[in-house]
Automatic annotation (TrEMBL):
Gene3D superfamilies: alpha/beta hydrolase
Organism: Streptosporangium brasiliense
Keywords: Hydrolase
InterPro entries for the chain: AB_hydrolase_fold, AXE1_dom, CE7
Class of the enzyme per the UniProt entry, highest EC level: hydrolase
Protein name, entry field: Cephalosporin-C deacetylase
Length: 345
């Protein structure tokens, strides 16, 4: 069934921001703390049975100096510098195997896939530990890990790792640092939305069925995982409700979107019970940069799947031709004025 508002209401749904005091300062401090540690990217080429693709195991220092793993794949014949997609992964997933990520190198792009610390026990294996949680390969529980304090919250570390993934990609000689795109679906979409606000000079962002947007509404209208983790936590910690949402407001995609001038292509499934359509449109309608959205009327959290990938590839073709995928025009020659309180790297 359709689980949210009619489309004509969604297109105009722009709820009031729940922006905590000191939001910008919090993220400036977070990135400053992260950058106290040398990025120290290491790219080790690994042998695969992929004759047309070169693959590198990636290691770099994320939040706290913790080692984050990933893959970098490039066309075997590439001499560079190449445009690059930094790919973020959905909840419970990990970096998996190199052959899971062939779309972009087959299209002539590099792709850096960031493993999600502490995750990878649900649907694709991960190998990056979260030293704060003391584990990797966890299946559930990240949404409430450290949720009583923004400084301790899991997603503070993960979003900072996402920013460092862009920096790691730009450090490789086969990557053109001026042509970096971020991409992700669900939790990966949340990362793409946050990182493209925190790193203002990205070329583009693909933000599909994004998680972690309009979080309080999502927790109130859906019982689907992983938002259900918040409900279970508050069912037992009744007196912590205001404290929990005060933390979550520091990570809400709407607050990043309002500061985000990176051109972006969003997608939404109108039958999505995991990231309800109103939560996606809340971020989309607040997004401050050039934007467009693909609406998949009879789809749920899978969104457009391969059809959305085709939209990405069309957009990538436009980007390489010097055109905007959302306006069709040549890119702006001047940077648009940032909204009040815009984040700085």
């Amino acid at each position: 069934m359709f689980v949210d508002m009619p489309l004509e209401q969604l297109r105009n749904y722009r709820p009031e921001l729940r922006e905590p005091a000191g939001f910008d300062a919090f993220w400036e401090r977070t990135l400053a703390e992260t950058r106290l540690h040398d990025l120290a990217p290491v790219f080790t080429e690994v042998e695969t049975d992929l004759a047309l693709v070169r693959c590198f195991d990636v290691r770099y220092a994320g939040f706290g100096g913790h080692e984050i793993r990933g893959w970098l794949l490039v066309p075997a014949a590439a001499e560079g510098p190449l445009p690059c997609v930094v790919q973020y992964i959905g909840y419970n997933g990990g970096r998996g195997m190199p052959h899971d990520w062939l779309t972009w190198p087959v299209a002539g792009w590099a792709v850096l896939v960031m493993d999600s610390r502490g995750q990878g026990g649900g649907w694709r294996a991960g190998e990056t530990a979260d030293p704060v949680g003391g584990t990797w390969g966890q299946v559930h529980g990240k949404l409430t890990q450290g949720v009583l304090d923004p400084d301790d919250y899991y997603y503070r570390r993960l979003y900072a790792d996402g920013v460092r993934a862009v920096e790691a990609a730009r450090a490789h000689p086969l990557v053109d640092p001026s042509r970096v795109v971020v991409s992700g679906s669900s939790q990966g979409g949340a990362l793409a939305m946050a990182v493209s606000a925190l790193v203002p000079d990205l070329l583009f962002a693909f933000i599909d069925v994004p998680f972690m947007s309009h979080i309080r509404r999502a927790a109130e209208i859906t019982d689907e995982e992983p938002y259900a983790e918040i409900g279970r936590f508050l069912k037992n910690h009744r007196h912590r409700l205001d404290q929990v949402f005060a933390t979550l407001d520091h990570f809400d995609g709407m607050n990043f979107a309002a500061r985000n001038t990176t051109p972006a292509l969003f997608s939404v499934g109108l039958r999505d019970g995991v990231t309800p359509a109103s939560t996606v449109f809340a971020a989309y309608n607040h997004h401050a940069g050039p934007k467009d959205i693909r609406v998949w009327h009879f789809n749920a959290h899978e969104g457009g799947e391969s059809a959305q990938v085709a939209e990405h590839l069309k957009a990538a073709r436009d980007l390489l031709a010097g055109l905007s995928p959302v306006t069709g025009a040549a890119p702006r020659t001047e940077t648009a004025a940032e909204p009040s309180g815009a984040l700085t790297p």
